[in-house]
Amino acid sequence: SVPAVPAVVGAQLRVPLVTGGSAEYANLDHGASAPCLNAVRDAVNELLPWYASVHRGAGFASQVCTRVYEGARETLRRFVGARRTDSVIFTRNTTDALNLLAAALPADTSVVVFDTEHHAALLPWAGERVHHLGIPESPQEAVRLLDAALAECADGPKLAVLTGASNVTGELWPVAELARVAREHGARTVLDAAQLAPHRPVRIADLGVDHAVLSGHKLYAPFGAGALVGRDDWLDRAEPYLAGGGATRSVPDAGEIDWNTGPERHEAGSPNTVGVHALAKACEVLAEHAEAIEGHEDLLLRRLRAGLATVPGLRELGLFGPEHDRVGVVSFTVDGQDPGLLAAALSAEHGIGVRDGLFCAHRAVRHLLAGTDAQRAVRISLGLGTTVEHVDRIVTALRGLVAHGPQWSYELDGGRWVP
Ligand code: PMP
Question: What is the longest distance spanned by two Cα atoms in the chain?
Fold first, then answer.
């Protein structure tokens, strides 16, 4: 039986179908944003009466919020298994966290990055010292590519950008091995844990990773907060990410501004206290139920992949082979079928939400589609709201769509199929 996991808001939401009536919404798009945990909603409701400014007020509510906000740093540090000395900087999301790190790199840092990365991890690095590693076909090749590229880097600081789990294929990357090779070359590592953290525990100290980033909205805390966790020396020496209140110790009438060190240096302006509280609560709940979450997903993923294997012409996308360990994300194409039309019909006729496209990882998806007629793929991503019925429903729906086509007619409107 499938282990029970923490409940999410909107678990039994009903959505209208074009074919008449309604269906319980099957959200199979957790990879885009995960629904809010009931426990997160409750924690937010509890905080809202005390909602006030952080760090700036003498009043009781301000003290409560400051305690909540600062306490959340410790929760995040524990959640990613960081070192005691690591800092936690709150950001808007993963993209923001990676751009912050990119802006804080010492001059002349060489950056090595695989072309498979999500654009958030692929694009923030600028300049001549960015080395693109191409696309490996196996975890061993990934390690070899990184080793060779770091050997070629000029002297000076180096950073290797790693991903924990792909948001396209769900495949797990050999992070510990990659981090070991990086260390041998004196390079630091940053782990994009946006897709890993909702599914598996992240332990950056054990992995030997220097920095990690994640997004609350992918972690069942949809309130616009993310984090950059890790070593603080580069960050303490960098220009503040945002200039403004909270980032300074003193602003003299003339002369040098005395900027803070520590997280405050990069968190100018009134912070997203509610979002940070929600993120920390989600981290607590996910950590507490890690085993059940993995068990639930493992069973559903097996069932899904076994079902998808019965859909004629369906090809699962993957770099490292079908047996390679992955989280609950499966992208695919179906021979002769338009992925956008499949996704539209799944929604309109079956009440199933999936995503189609290139998933902000254009190079990776184009590589995976090379040699086929497809320009895009469909992605199913499982999560805590997923049930056996959702999995069975999408498999049955896909088999029907492939055999008979949609029941309704659709037209293209701005590149999207609409009923
Ligand atoms: N990296 C990965 C692996 C992701 O899945 C995502 C979100 N899809 C991001 C980075 C970017 O996250 P955000 O949009 O929250 O900044």
Answer: 75
